[in-house]
């Protein structure tokens, strides 16, 4: 992990710790399932998400998504002029995922570790650029706690679908599942102990 993307002097709070009944690559693959954003999160991904790599063992997914005003939080986002989000996910080595909302400027980091072949633990945190001054630090702590809570809410919405999942590279439809195919290519190429 070269550095936190988009943050030069990071500040964070203690992470939230969540256990999942799935292997950690299920969580990774879930981020590359562009269809789930609309079905689970009310975010309709606009055509042609971009997949690229900046370094060995790195894979990035960048896309824009329209917020479907289904929840109070979604309606608030639309009211605050965040009806379209610009999102980037940076995967590093299979167990670190940096999630950036480039529209709103937050960064969440998922650090994952296997518990056994069928379970993993996720340490989720939010980061921001360190601010000077006591009052700025207090406001930033509140913002980071809120950001971490929103990121956890977003992740927990996937839990019913991830529980018991044992991903296997099966039949993927060309043109529809190209982003997931890129994940599997990357996943297979990662070094193994």
Describe the structure.
This protein has 193 residues and is an alpha+beta fold. It is 33% helix and 32% strand. The chain contains six helices and nine strands. It has helices at 24-31, 34-41, 72-79, 134-156, 159-162, 178-189; strands at residues 10-12, 16-20, 43-45, 50-52, 58-67, 84-92, 96-101, 106-116, 119-129. Strands 1, 2, 3, 4, 5, 6, 7, 8 and 9 form a nine-stranded antiparallel beta sheet that branches. Strand 4 (50-52) and strand 5 form a beta hairpin.
How many DSSP helices? 6
Radius of gyration: 17 Å
Average the pLDDT over all residues and give the rounded result.
86
Encode the helix/strand succession as letters. EEHHEEEHEEEEHHH
SS-based class:
alpha+beta
Q: Please give the number of β-strands.
A: 9
**Helix percent band:** 25-40%
Dominant shape: globular
Beta fraction: 25-35%
Euclidean distance between termini CA atoms: 18 Å
**Biggest sheet details:** 9 strands, antiparallel
Ranges where pLDDT stays below 50 over 5 or more residues in a row are none
Summarize the structure.
By secondary structure, this protein is of the alpha+beta class. The protein has helices at residues 24-31, 34-41, 72-79, 134-156, 159-162, 178-189; strands at residues 10-12, 16-20, 43-45, 50-52, 58-67, 84-92, 96-101, 106-116, 119-129.
């Amino acid at each position: 992990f070269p550095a936190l993307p988009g943050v030069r002097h990071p500040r964070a709070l203690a992470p939230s710790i969540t256990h999942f009944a799935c292997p950690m690559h299920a969580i990774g693959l879930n981020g590359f399932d562009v269809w789930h954003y609309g079905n689970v999160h009310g975010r309709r991904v606009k055509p042609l998400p971009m997949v690229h790599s900046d370094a060995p063992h790195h894979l990035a997914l960048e896309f824009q998504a329209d917020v479907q005003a289904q929840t109070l939080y979604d309606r608030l986002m639309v009211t605050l002029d965040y009806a379209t989000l610009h999102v980037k996910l940076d995967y590093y080595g299979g167990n670190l995922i940096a999630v950036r909302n480039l529209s709103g400027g937050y960064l969440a980091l998922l650090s994952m570790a296997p518990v056994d072949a069928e379970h993993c633990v996720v340490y989720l945190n939010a980061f921001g650029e360190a601010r000077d001054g006591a009052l700025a630090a207090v406001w930033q702590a509140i913002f980071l706690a809120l950001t971490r809570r929103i990121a956890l809410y977003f992740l927990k919405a996937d839990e019913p679908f991830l529980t018991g999942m044992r991903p296997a590279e099966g039949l993927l439809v060309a043109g529809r599942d190209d982003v997931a195919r890129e994940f599997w290519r990357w996943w297979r190429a990662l070094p193994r102990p």
